[in-house]
Amino acid sequence: MVACGKPSLRGLSEGDRSREVRFGRLLANPKVTAGAILAGGAAKVVEAARGRGHVLAIQDTSEINFSTTKERRRGLGQIGKGTGYGVLLHALLALDADSGACLGLLGGEAWTRADGPVAVPHALRELEERESMRWLRGAETARSLLPGAAMVTVVADRESDIYDEWALLPGPDFHLLSRAMQDRRLAGGGSLFKLAAGLALADTAVLDLRKRGPDAPARKARLELRFGRAAIRRPARSPRSLPASVELTLVEVVEPDPPAGVEPLHWRLLTTHRVETPEQAWRVVGWYKARWAIEQFFRTLKLQGLRIEDSQLHHAPSLVNHVAVAARAAVLVMQLVHSRQGQGGEVAGCVFEDHQLRALDVLDRRYADRGQTLRNPHPRLSLAWAAWIVARLGGWNGYRSSRPPGPVTFFNGLRYFNAFADGFDAKDVCIP
């Protein structure tokens, strides 16, 4: 899918009609599931995480909006506020907490609401009957697959602020971190937001904020930091078998003087990590900022690369599986983006096959022959070394003073590289 640069089965099949039919049958096969596809590369991630000091397991959900008409819904259910039809993708990415290296896709879920809206209100359903269970399943996946790391923190946005998750999942060296979804009641009386408002100022700092949309460009922001302990009271609708309260750390960062016309940043972060100093609190903020990786992953899947929403498959089950395949392809691009500075130390073999490594060697020598100025600065056979070559193929000029290559550059470079590697692998084939 990365090689052809398009999500269509026709493109994947390279004009071979019988191959296109076989691909279609594979995606429509009821024995082929999106969950199995998404987890198909987990073994490499588990191996890459082994022995690391701290791994972030970042999870989030994105809506894949497919074009439909009233006469051609393709079996898709409503998404968003009911104005679109498509597939929901919940993904779980693993990152090295210290270097920021993307280790790969641990797993996830993809589904469509083909049966329409649920008649029973959300608050009256058991947790097991809600889509919210995906957050607990994702955290459980991280806990079961990453015992080789010294510490694991599951990072998620506000939808993951579920009392059952706080009460059931944390353990020694296994932590949770998410934004507070609501003003929870505290065990000793009062509420979470009122507690936050009364915390003493601990520190201030200027942080770089990434672009959050067309109306929220990248900028620097002066933030105030506060932190303290909060004993969250069990909600009335949670099972009484859960603890009556859970003690968490609350870390709040707020922007007191945003630019004119800009919504101020205000994060209330809940975590199972103990925080005693401002340095530890800023570290928690940094781990939460790492959520950018999964947002970039979704953009690569949809707008900045694969454009999966252009798929024209006719049936929802096939589209669900197709989204899962595209997610596996998009994460390859993200691994290159995160390795471009060389700080992670990952080997190229975690992404590329043996024949591709040989092709990378040839391309590296070709660039080296052009002079000392633009030689690959990274150790041979490291992932950063491979990323440098792919970025050059994608149009990056190679100068350190230039803006680092992004997902689109790597996506274009991978298309060129895959074609080159396939041809290089076939160069010694004897045709009788």
Q: Give the total of beta strands.
A: 10
Any idea what the radius of gyration is? 23 Å
What is the number of domains? 3
The number of helices is 13
Q: In whole angstroms, how far apart are the ends?
A: 31 Å
Task: Assign an overall shape.
Answer: globular
Instruction: Return the structural class.
Output: alpha+beta
Low-confidence stretches: none
Strand content: 15-25%
Name some characteristics of this structure.
432 residues, alpha+beta, 3 domains, ten-stranded mixed β-sheet, 13 helices, 10 strands, 34% helix, globular
Describe this structure as you would to a colleague.
With 432 residues, the protein is an alpha+beta fold. It folds into three domains: 1-157 and 291-339, no CATH class; 179-279, no CATH class; 348-425, no CATH class. 34% of the residues lie in helices and 20% in strands. Strands 1, 2, 3, 4, 5, 6, 7, 8, 9 and 10 form a ten-stranded mixed β-sheet that branches. Helix 2 (17-28) packs across helix 10 (316-339), helix 10 (316-339) packs across helix 13 and helix 11 crosses helix 13 (407-425). The two termini are 31 Å apart.
Concise overview:
This protein has helices spanning 9-12, 17-28, 34-38, 42-49, 133-145, 163-168, 192-197, 278-289, 292-302, 316-339, 354-368, 383-393, 407-425, and strands spanning 55-66, 77-79, 84-96, 102-111, 152-156, 174-179, 203-209, 219-233, 245-254, 266-271.
